[in-house]
């Protein structure tokens, strides 16, 4: 059996098994974790089998689906998709570990929650693996359904609003993409006589298409991906979704799902419509830089921990868009590796913040203060995640951000300089967050209440995930287990990024040649 | 039966035939066998109604009706194997080609499900239709006894129907069969006069069926009267248009009208006024805005099973006839009328979606959603290519089954006063019955056009056909409307899954075998057409209309 197919079907099978076992919570939980770990092993195997620089798409397979419309079930991975699949496989056990004892809304079963998470994983892997435009669209929309139920069923107080907003934004974006996909199909049918949705064939046909055709196709895809990513004018669903989603789900939203948007730029927008991409690059770059600045400033001003995380992500996606549309291989390698590093850094930040929220029972920053005194380990973790988020040299994000800025500066100096301001702002919002939550004397209602203040007696359950302690306890073994792999990755990928860059670089160079641009200066291969 | 129709209509059918009217026309019995079976069973049903003892009528009627539909399906299948090109029969009044056969198959399959819904007696004890004993009590009722007050009369109704035992009106079955026969003729008619007769044959039983609800009698009767009055107007428009087209082309036959439109110096005024009026009559039946005003009231007031029958089958028949008309008779003049129907499609989508968003009742919401879907179907109907025809046929099939299952499930959510169709009653339904809520969500997602459902496939094939026929802007509008429409359905999903159930909310009845079968049929087809649509697409593309 094809390894990639196994990567898609295994979590799906897991979702079914866990859903059936949801009556017995421990069994469901351990089964889910087992499947997630097995998936991680498979992902590692896929990484091992993948040969960087060999075929454009590897591990591929294809079966006819609707021949009348030239639709097939085709899957395949390039380097960028491979690392994203690996990231999901890595994050999923951590998300499950984090949500192990998390409080759920009344009447919801943890088994159902974990089953939906696994279903989400299966669909997301499939989205990254699809190499048929029709199939990609189908999965792109299907992916919304479990997420809709995850946010709407297990989220915070205004979860219904957030879930519907999330769904409608993405669905609308997807439908506009469908218009483009149909347009691409129709164009292919009219020029070659055979309609097809096959990615490689469409690329050949469309990249020769007149500019006006390309622009229309590009715009449709762009809207869908910009909603997903999210780029600035289309971002408003993310803060709401982030605030309401359970923490484990938020890790997936900002860590993986949003990457489908930037992945879409790299896999679909640029290769399919190279000429339009080059022409409209200034527009995307502008939106990207606006996103960097706007997201950073918003992050500085947030009073809610989870909304802050959303704006941090929006700022970072601006960076990724800048890297992709600067059209140098350094910048694109930077952007593609930033997708991974952002998942790791922000994923870790979300998990740490989730652990803080689990202790304080509040998402408002003002309710916290001086926690480092009581929970030094948690404080340290927040610092590591924060420093990686602000791209301190030596952490993983630094490599990517540096490559993006270096690569972009050669072609787009003005945008790059503006985006650099975002770096300064990133330092400001991360350190401010750390300062307010961790430093100083213990203060804030959430911290003091759990120390035994007046509120502690009224709602002891809400204060601490597991039991009714009166002091915010430091990280326990499970939480350390969840964070440790991420800490290791932050440092390893910061000091020795070559293994990941080696996988990404050939795919990026292939994309560059598909767009028909060459580097103004000789690329150093990303190291 | 068929012969009788022929001898009446053929002389009027065209001047040239008049001279030969003494001769018996050739009848292709193989082709019209499904029709003969359906009409024959309907007549037999009337006899059963008259002669069978009351306590056995229900079982005899249900058996007869299902058997007739099945048998008609078998004959249809056998005939479809034989021919590929199609032919006209009964002196050219019926044109039975591949597209017509596909529509017939769709209608038969849908009405099989609908008859199962009509036959169910377990959800509503004794069936959803007025009991036999009520016929006698009717004069008293209509003057305003408590039975007429919606909701207040559950006890009275229960008492009334209890002594009668199985006392369900069984004439719904022959009525449904007559209507089905009318629908089948409607989408195979090769001249406008036959089409008109078929229109009446399909409509009149429907008017009656709408008024037969056991509960909420006033609403049901109001729906019937409203449907009848507006329907009568629509028929009148159709007839007037027919007359104008006859004046224009000198014939009521579709091929001869087509020949006349292809190149002549005759008055365009007659042509377009006639075409407009005829199409108006069809759009009314298909509940396309701005001819949709009856839809919400009738969907809301009619017994749920009848609404299911109507929503699924009438839509197929109306659009089948419209497709036939546009493809066969008015293809040559499409440049002139195209933009009008273009506008109608947009209006229907917008009206359906926007007004649907304001509804507080599930049935009315589904009614507006059907208006929006009629808009999507219009997009396919005005795509006069082979691919457009195939896409529209597929969409009709997909939409019909989804709608049938939707109405099957709608009937299950009940309070002590009957069906709970207020949206607020549906809050937290997933807690009470995860299965029903889950299946209903799947159907709603199909209506919204989420991938892996037939709704998405239908939209995809229709929109891609329209796109390749050069209607890009219309496709974009339709896609935006689909996105808005999604909110319509998601709203209900939110209610069912993410709200706390009301303390005295409705319960979900355990469906009887009939309803279960009908709903399962609808859901399975919805899933299959979404995941493996190849076979249905192949059938739909065998060929077009003949004339």
Automatic annotation (TrEMBL), chain A:
<dbReference type="GO" id="GO:0008137">
    <property type="term" value="F:NADH dehydrogenase (ubiquinone) activity"/>
</dbReference>
<keyword id="KW-1133">Transmembrane helix</keyword>
<feature type="transmembrane region" description="Helical">
    <location>
        <begin position="215"/>
        <end position="235"/>
    </location>
</feature>
<feature type="transmembrane region" description="Helical">
    <location>
        <begin position="247"/>
        <end position="268"/>
    </location>
</feature>
<feature type="transmembrane region" description="Helical">
    <location>
        <begin position="79"/>
        <end position="100"/>
    </location>
</feature>
<feature type="transmembrane region" description="Helical">
    <location>
        <begin position="112"/>
        <end position="130"/>
    </location>
</feature>
<dbReference type="GO" id="GO:0012505">
    <property type="term" value="C:endomembrane system"/>
</dbReference>
<dbReference type="InterPro" id="IPR003918">
    <property type="entry name" value="NADH_UbQ_OxRdtase"/>
</dbReference>
<keyword id="KW-0472">Membrane</keyword>
<dbReference type="GO" id="GO:0016020">
    <property type="term" value="C:membrane"/>
</dbReference>
<dbReference type="GO" id="GO:0003954">
    <property type="term" value="F:NADH dehydrogenase activity"/>
</dbReference>
<dbReference type="GO" id="GO:0015990">
    <property type="term" value="P:electron transport coupled proton transport"/>
</dbReference>
<dbReference type="GO" id="GO:0042773">
    <property type="term" value="P:ATP synthesis coupled electron transport"/>
</dbReference>
<feature type="transmembrane region" description="Helical">
    <location>
        <begin position="370"/>
        <end position="392"/>
    </location>
</feature>
<protein>
    <submittedName>
        <fullName>NADH-quinone oxidoreductase subunit M</fullName>
    </submittedName>
</protein>
<keyword id="KW-0812">Transmembrane</keyword>
<dbReference type="GO" id="GO:0048039">
    <property type="term" value="F:ubiquinone binding"/>
</dbReference>
<feature type="transmembrane region" description="Helical">
    <location>
        <begin position="166"/>
        <end position="188"/>
    </location>
</feature>
<dbReference type="InterPro" id="IPR001750">
    <property type="entry name" value="ND/Mrp_TM"/>
</dbReference>
<feature type="domain" description="NADH:quinone oxidoreductase/Mrp antiporter transmembrane">
    <location>
        <begin position="130"/>
        <end position="423"/>
    </location>
</feature>
<feature type="transmembrane region" description="Helical">
    <location>
        <begin position="136"/>
        <end position="154"/>
    </location>
</feature>
<feature type="transmembrane region" description="Helical">
    <location>
        <begin position="412"/>
        <end position="431"/>
    </location>
</feature>
<dbReference type="InterPro" id="IPR010227">
    <property type="entry name" value="NADH_Q_OxRdtase_chainM/4"/>
</dbReference>
<feature type="transmembrane region" description="Helical">
    <location>
        <begin position="280"/>
        <end position="301"/>
    </location>
</feature>
<feature type="transmembrane region" description="Helical">
    <location>
        <begin position="308"/>
        <end position="327"/>
    </location>
</feature>
<comment type="similarity">
    <text>Belongs to the complex I subunit 4 family.</text>
</comment>
<feature type="transmembrane region" description="Helical">
    <location>
        <begin position="339"/>
        <end position="358"/>
    </location>
</feature>
<dbReference type="Pfam" id="PF00361">
    <property type="entry name" value="Proton_antipo_M"/>
</dbReference>
<feature type="transmembrane region" description="Helical">
    <location>
        <begin position="480"/>
        <end position="498"/>
    </location>
</feature>
